[in-house]
Please model this.
Amino acid sequence: MCGIVGYIGDRSAISVLLDGLQHLEYRGYDSAGVAVIQDDQVITHRSVGKLANLIQKIDRRELHGTVGIGHTRWATHGRPTEVNAHPHQEGRVVLVHNGIIENYLDLRRKLEKLGHSFTSETDTEILCHLVAEQLKKTKQMQPAIQKALALVEGSYAIVVMDAEDPDRLYFARQGSPLVLGLGEKENILASDVPAILAYTRKMVFLEDGDRGVISAKKFEIFDAKGKPVKRKVAQIDWDPVMAEKGGYKHFMLKEIFEQPKVIGDTLAGRISAKHGVVLPELAELFGSKKFDVDHIQFVACGTSWHAAGVARYWIESLCGIPVSVDLASEFRYRNPVIGKKTLCVAISQSGETADTLAAAQLAKRRGAKLIAVCNVQGSSVTRLAHATLYTRAGPEIGVASTKAFTTQLTVLWLLTLWLSRKLKKIKTAALEQEVKALKRLPGLVQTSLESHNEVRALAKQFMNASPVLFIGRGTHYPVVLEGALKLKEIAYIHAEGFAAGELKHGPIALVDQDVPVIALLPQGDLLEKMISNIQEVAARGASVLMIGEKNCFPKGMGTAHIPMPKASSYLTPILYVVPLQLFAYDIADQMGTDIDQPRNLAKSVTVE
Ligand code: M6R
Model:
């Protein structure tokens, strides 16, 4: 959702701003804008739709100012129009904002009484006027912003430019992400790391309540009361190239094909023949203390919630601890039974999902120990958690999660093995066996990717179908939910995932010869049950695409088959999701949809 960039230094600001906004496109947006100070004037350009529309409007040769702010807007208050696009300006105050000002109507009324009038429908413009109003009294930008923000309820990350002072940019964050990149004679503010990577890897992840000011050579950070605070400077190990398409048609395809590599990275240093599973990240939380956990509570949204769904089966079966899996948006508004013996695991690729953060906060407040499973170093959930298990997927730019999911599963499987060892529920020989199997995992994922040609051919066949049903059982039930979500997100095809045993309790009424069914058929205890479920839908005319090991396909059944490699039964969810990702990708590609930035979606859902 909304992307912010602010630049001050010795380069032409416009190039850094547009480049930064391009790297934030994945967040989702429907209008964009920039403002640069040049020759004592603020030059603003705004445009509806894709960034390309804005770029077309701008003659970079004419814009040489070295300070500026930019924004991609995901409309909340007010339609996606040019007038509503950021930056907004009132007098000296030029501002971009990510988040929602909840009391904006109240503030608007008060400002109107003081003589302010507004041109847009946005809550952001209120912020501009609020700062401008405070400036009448304080004359100085930093205290004016501080005082204005004290009146605001809601979430925000803002960058403010002073039209009368091109040597400084001001910022504040509360509930929406903001990162400060520290360069040589230049500093950059942005909503996320990929917008900064090309300039520096030295970054400060600002915390809620932080406000501050940057010049080309200096930065100062204050807390909400105006007291100076120190923040850690992190060295980011992501390479700028990781955030490029690298010859692939879409980021999503690149990210699907990166899975063997990033799963290998996620495993690196965490498994060994001698020690089994090593998670030093958990040492401080559980180190010498008695392991006093009687309940595991997962909170997450979307794809991350599906990963939690798989982990529930793993942990309950191997560790014998009851596991609850909640959608964060539901969990935060119920009255969950959480106590000191609860271990809450918040899963989030971005670490900035508003609902997941709120749910994790709630669990922590009620005494739970909190672990984050996250892909983004320094993000909000990692700061909230007592410990973080990082997935090492690298930047995931495609809105539809792929490598984030499989690396989350990898981490969650490591956590399962670690817990089972801690609880003495697994024998050394069995653990050794699983560690051996894990070593083969990147190679097996590579083999799953080899299904691409078959999947591509099938995608043509399934392209005009709607709905498409996905069925699976056990750990593969959350995987079919994920397969259906992928198809909805990028191909806009109505797809549903079902626990195969549930079909006859209702969904089978949907099935006829026009409704394709995709069935996951891994080797194991539930194979026979799955075959019966396939028989049920085939008898009603459905064409069935079966995904499984060759010897598992029942003779004479199914319209099409995708063969999968043999693997330890615990690891098959990580392998079987791969053809589902490819299937959604190929259908969307043939339909020509905007795969990396599907309509109405944002990569990082930082507001409710
Ligand atoms: O960053 P998070 O993992 O917290 O994001 C949660 C969901 O918004 C995310 O998984 C979403 O469902 C993806 N678009 C799925 O492809």
